[in-house]
Amino acid sequence: MQIAAHTLGCKLNSAETSTIVGQFRTQGWDVTQSVENANVYLLNTCSVTANAEKECRQIVRKILRQNPKAFIAVTGCYAQLRPEEIASIDGVDVVLGAKEKFNFFSHITSFEKLSAPKIFSSPIDEATEFHLAATADTDERTRAFLKVQDGCDYTCSFCTIPMARGESRSADIDHIVSEARRLSDDGFREIILSGVNVGDFGRKIGTSFYDLVKAIDDDEKITARIRISSIEPNLLSNEIIELVAKSKKFCHHFHIPLQSGSAPILKLMQRRYTADLYRSRIERIKELMPNAGIGVDVIVGFPGESDEDFLESYDFIRSLDISYLHVFTYSERPDTKAVMMGDPVKIEKRKERNAMLRILSEKKRQKFYSEQNGSVVNILLESGIHTSETGNMRSGYSENYVRAALAVSSLPLNAELVKVRLCRTDGEFVIADLLEVLSYRSELLLLPIL
Ligand code: SF4
Questions:
Q1: Is the CB of residue 154 below 6 angstroms from any atom belonging to ligand 1?
Q2: Mind listing the pLDDT tens digit for each residue in 32-86?
Q3: Reported pTM
Q4: Cα 271 to ligand 1 centre (Å)
Q5: Hey, whose CA ends up nearest to atom 2 of ligand 1?
Q6: What is the CATH number of domain 376-440?
Q7: Which of 13, 124, 156, 231 is the pocket-test mutation for ligand 1 (most atoms within 8 Å of CB)?
Q8: What residues are paired with 419 via a beta bridge?
Q9: How does pLDDT run across 84-120, given as a tens digit for each residue?
Q10: Is the beta carbon of 164 within 6 A of some atom in ligand 1?
Q11: How far apart are CA 323 and CA 296, in angstroms?
């Protein structure tokens, strides 16, 4: 028996798909990339995109065209939020909610196609177990995403994640440390600590994210470098910042959602910090780690965001010493407080504001990159090759999230982690000179031209 899987959405979803597929493996199943050969096709969905349903429907149709006998199982955030909607898609056999997704075999005993779909779904407040999960970054096998926390107890007014993933919960530190050791032993050079609200790690089990960072930092068997995924500013304590600053293992890179720099909008969003607190975090990071890369999430066009609010937010972001932005255009989500607020921003305005912030992001990135010229960093190379005016290049990220590129001709084919000097900015890359190869890939990968 063979299973194929497809993930929509974030890295957390990818990690969970790997865990579910692993359970099939334990039961003696093989994993296939080929839709035609799959007895079961698992689709792990996301609710963030406005088109979740359309996307899900399209994928199911495509699978059934290639393999009408495939047993189709759908799970993930969208499956928890709208199980009936998914069950109404022709050809879907089962829908599994947040509590059920890690228990396929206790719900399904036969994988023959069903004449009518079955839904296994519980109220979200019953999803209280934590399932550790990890996944490799696509086929690179150099970076791994390690899920350390799930769910969220916050009530941001635009967000459906707490409804789809349930309450905040986490694994204990010993389990995470041993999983990080395993990933490190397996040859991963970078581990990204991931979660829905990572900074909330451990609160309910008498520990904290600081304790986790410290335990990983102190463990000599974990040799991979460690990156913290997105963390809420109110939970990124100065203690954590100071620990990362001293660490040789933790990357000097932070991704901190701001969402808006305008006080009234932050309040309407029900975020748990002020713009002043946000600024103080950035200042502390830069004081201790002048070269740290800092990414910022921003939402434009939230209900009630006037021109003045937007400009206040824009000016605030412009004044921060940050490296890049991830700009999201607000879109209405059913069942959220924000959608009931009224006073929507016109779509055209949302687009204009998005464009303005993208330009600002590019300026910030270029400034950050040019400040890094001359510095020595370690780049984890990806396998693809780009052609540019300078010739064929390979690229990857430094600890502080500079995307650097090196001439293929200057590198051994199986180079993986390299020490380089950053030389000059060239579009979206910083061109670098090789100083030393720190590690090699164990197997030679085929290098596709991107
Ligand atoms: S912190 Fe806010 S935006 Fe993030 S998952 Fe929780 S509710 Fe959603």
A1: yes
A2: 999 999 999 999 999 876 677 788 889 999 999 999 999 999 999 999 999 999 9
A3: 0.92
A4: 8
A5: 156
A6: 2.40.50
A7: 156
A8: 378, 436
A9: 999 999 999 999 999 999 999 999 989 999 999 999 9
A10: no
A11: 8
